Amino acid sequence: MPGKLKAKIVAGRHLPVMDRASDLTDAFVEVKFGNTTFKTDVYPKSLNPQWNSEWFKFEVDDEDLQDEPLQITVLDHDTYSANDAIGKVYIDIDPLLCSEAATVISGWLPIYDTIH
Q1: Is 29's pLDDT higher than 70?
Q2: Are residues 85 and 114 in contact, defined by beta-carbon separation less than 8 angstroms?
Q3: pLDDT of 39-65, one tens digit each?
Q4: Is-contact 71 87, C-beta < 8 A?
Q5: Residue in 23, 1, 2, 5 with CA at minimum distance from that of residue 69
Q6: 57 and 34 in contact (C-beta within 8 Å)?
Q7: Closest CA to 97 of 51, 56, 65
Q8: Is the torsion defined by CA of 44, 89, 10, 54 positive or negative?
Q9: Residue in 55, 52, 51, 4 with CA at minimum distance from that of residue 26
Q10: What SMART domains does the record point to (predicted)?
Q11: What is the 3-state secondary structure (H, E, C) of the chain?
Q12: Cα–Cα distance for residue pair 87/89, rounded to 1 Å
C-alpha cells in the first residue's frame, strides 16, 4: 500500500554569501524522497529567503518510507555555471511511522554545511 509524505519549504535564514559581486545569494531548495525531486522557485538576492512553497507530495511504497530519508538541499542558483550547494538536511521519517496519529516535523532545521 502506498504511503504519503508531504513537505513544505517556508524560509531560510542566515545563509552564507554565495555571490561575491552582490554579497548575497540566489537560493532555492531541492526536496528529494526516493526517485522524486521537487524544487522551490529561486529567491534572488537574499540571505534570508522566504519561499513559502506549495506542498510537495510524495507517494511511495511503505518499504521505501522505512528505508529512505527525506533530503533537503539548499543551493545557490548560477546562470552561467553549475549551481552551488549551500547545505543539506537528511530527515529520518521512521519516527513518523511509529506514531499512531498523523505527525508533523516543524521548525528551523540546521543545514549541513557543504561549502568547506
Answers
A1: yes
A2: yes
A3: 999 999 999 999 999 999 998 887 777
A4: no
A5: 5
A6: no
A7: 65
A8: positive
A9: 51
A10: C2
A11: CEEEEEECCCECCCCCCCECCCCECCEEEEEEECCEEEECCCECCCCCCECCCCCEEEEEEHHHHHHCCEEEEEEECCCCCCCEEEEEEEECCHHHHHCCCCCCCCCCCCCEECCC
A12: 7
Is residue 114 pLDDT above 80, yes or no? no
- Which one is the CATH code of 2-111: 3.80.30.20, 1.20.1640.10, 3.30.1490.190, 2.60.40.150? 2.60.40.150
Q: What's at 27, amino acid-wise? A: A
Integer-rounded Cα Rg, in Å, for the chain is: 15
Residue 84 has a CB neighbour count (10 Å cut-off) of 17
Round to whole Å and give the CA distance between 43 and 49. Answer: 6
pTM comes to 0.87
- Say if CB 78 and CB 84 are below 8 A apart: yes
Q: Which of 115, 20, 116, 44 has the alpha carbon at shortest distance from 73? A: 115
